[in-house]
Structures are given as C-alpha cells and as structure tokens.
Amino acid sequence: MNRKTALLVLSSLLAGLSLNGCASSQQGKIVNHSFEFRAHLDSPDVQVLNYEYSTQKPDRDQLLGVGGNRVPQASHISGGFPRGDFVYMKWRIRSTGEVFEDRVDLRERLPADISNQRIYCVLDGAQLYVLLTPMDYYRQKVSTEEMTKVRAEANTPLKRFLAWNLLYRVKQIYPDPITQLR
After folding, report:
1. Nearest to 128 by CA among 105, 151, 111
2. What is the model's pTM?
3. Is the pLDDT of residue 85 over 50?
4. N or C: which end of the chain has fewer CB within 10 A?
5. In 3D, which of 111, 102, 123, 116 has the Cα closest to residue 173?
6. Nearest to residue 111, comparing CAs of 180, 45, 25, 19?
7. Which strands form 46-54's sheet, in the order they lie side by side?
8. Residue range 140-146: average pLDDT?
C-alpha cells in the first residue's frame, strides 16, 4: 500500500469513527429526569407482570423482577441516567385474568429536552397511558373544596393520577401524542 492510499484509508476510518461517536453520544446522553408507575395505588385491579424503561433490552435477570421473581407493583427512578427509547408494560387484570402488554416507542413522543420531567405510566384496563409532568409545580395552591371535588370524581386510574397531580401540568404522550390534559 502506498503512502497516499494509506492516508486515504486512515482519514476515512477517522471520519467514520467521529460520525459514529456523534450518533452514540446523543443516544446515551445522561439527563436528569424520572420514570415512575404506581399500579397498586392507581389501578388496584391490575397486577404488573413486567416492565421496562430503557434504551436497550435488559438481560434475563433484570426481566425476572426482584425478590423471588416478583415484579414490583410500583417503581420510581429519578436522577441523572440515560433517556429511554421505550416503555414496555405487561399486566394482568385481576378480576378477569386478561393479560395485556404494550411497548411504546418514546423517541418521537418525548420533547427534545426532558430535563426535570417525570415519565409516568398508568394502566387502565386494557389501556396503557404514558404521561409527562414537570418536576416543579405550576400552581401554588389548590383549595380544599377543589381538591375534595376532584378526588371524589376520580373513578378511573387516569383520573386518580390527575387528582393527585393537580399542581402539575400533565401531558399525555401515549396513546395520543402530546395532548394537554389540563
């Protein structure tokens, strides 16, 4: 190989590596945000069988859950960690035994900046809802009367979540993209 060919190969290799580095740096970017669900409070008739919030499929041990193959009925992770590409939930309705699962691609549903945002999942019968809320309040106060009224009318898992989050702006990002709920 002559010197000119070697330089051409080397420069092509370096250019390819730098482009690859740019693409992968966006994918694994550390962002301060949270992921959460509380099926035992939002949806008492639902049993979570499996869940994932990830940028890649976890290994088999992660899929088995914690404590003797039991999957937790609530999860909360908050802090600086990679932005997930998807949410996966599998659940059973206790009263009927029906099993459902859904995998939501978040890449086009989340805003570009999810810093200080909470991704929250609600299971309502056969439907998975994925909601996005900021970690800071947008309202200072809610009257006792308003809180009592809203909580009394909260007769579905989604309405229960909204009732407990009156101080936050809540956006539904799945099933309908970016619908303002309040």
Report:
1. 105
2. 0.72
3. yes
4. N
5. 111
6. 180
7. 46-54, 86-93, 99-105
8. 77
